[in-house]
Amino acid sequence: MPASATREVLLAALDAYVHPLIGQGLVAAGCIVDLTPGATPHVVVELGFPAAGIAIDIVSDIKTLLRASCDVEATVRIGCRVLPQAVQKGLNPLPGVANIIAVASGKGGVGKSTVAVNLALALQAEGASVGILDADIYGPSQPLMLGSKQRPTSPDGKRMNPIIAHGLQAMSIGFIMADDAQPAIWRGPMVTQALTQLLNETVWDDLDYLIIDLPPGTGDIQLSLSQRVPVSASVIVTTPQDIALLDARKGLQMFRKVGIPVLGVIENMATHVCTNCGHEEAIFGAGGGDKLANEAGTELLGSLPLDLRIRLQADSGNPTVAADPQSELSQRYRGIARLMAARLAYGAGGELAFPTVTISDD
User: What is the number of H-type helices and E-type strands within the chain?
Assistant: First the structure.
């Protein structure tokens, strides 16, 4: 066995690899769960977030690193294990759900629901088990976006099975109401009770992430969510317009006041793409999402264009990530989803307790 392939040298080399989504070395982050040293070392890497879209690149990077620094041809296997993260004090995790991520906006009309469903689909495409809860009791939109008019079934007459659409486990008041055009004319307590029932009486099946598509604003549903629902983190969707940014700040501060971490800001409709010539222009202003993130001490998770295809695909019940998974638009959603999940797992500094490293001499 070459001296360069000792356990200590291999571990030192692996810890020198700092992926931007992890923020620290693979050993320090607890990502090396198995290592067999030798002339042809075997390395098992386990990430804390789904990363199917970049897994092959990480494997290639590690092989190249070990070839250059240790003069060995390693075999590298990579996977992911999504662990539950902390929730608000005094709340217990929801059965069948590892992490709940709330997608919120300060005002309506910023495309939050479209972003939410595409983020859910993007996390699924990256390898996670994902569900989506439509928490907008007054104006549910996920049944339309998911292209489903199914009614939930019940396993025991007390609980509901989620609707399966595009591989997602989904629940919405829109699946339950007999008349899609019938408005929910309810006062605050009734809305809160309906949301609680949708969440707690749905039989979620071993989800890594449950995306909650919140209604806009900072009202009853948001307050009830922060007090009663074990939320791991939130993201804020905004457009670059000053009025949208003003309201987005309120939403961001609301989550922080109730102890729910904000993973970052997603800037939707950042630019308009002309369907005739492809010219891209920041018609709502530029840099607003980045400015908001910097002021709030968080980060811009990504920017999305105002693109006709996104609207048409969502309205037809086949959101972008499902309709055209290889498109540039879908890759943008997947990149944002990976970053969001990585920030939940590791934080900005890459801190997370992972399983203990197992080293074998076989």
Answer: 12, 14
**DSSP code for 29:** T
What are phi and psi for residue 72, nearest 5 degrees?
-135, 155
- Contacts with 359 (C-beta within 8 Å, 6 or more apart), sequence order: 7, 34, 35, 37
For residue 163, the cross-strand partners are 170
CA distance 82 to 271: 33
Q: What is the DSSP string of 329-361?
A: HHHHHHHHHHHHHHHHHHTTTT----PPPEE--
Q: Considering the entire predicted model, what is its pTM? A: 0.90
Encoded tokens for 195: 């949301």
Class of the CATH domain delimited by 97-325: alpha beta
Which of the 8 DSSP states describes residue 205? Answer: -
Q: How far is CA 68 from CA 2, 216, 284, in A?
A: 14, 52, 48
Split the chain (362 residues) into runs of 10 and give each run's mean pLDDT.
74 95 95 93 97 97 95 95 92 94 85 95 98 90 93 92 97 81 58 86 97 83 81 91 74 83 90 76 70 80 90 94 96 97 82 39 44
* Tokens standing for residue 320: 């972008």
CATH no. of 3-81+350-359: 3.30.300.130
Domain ranges of the chain: 3-81+350-359, 97-325
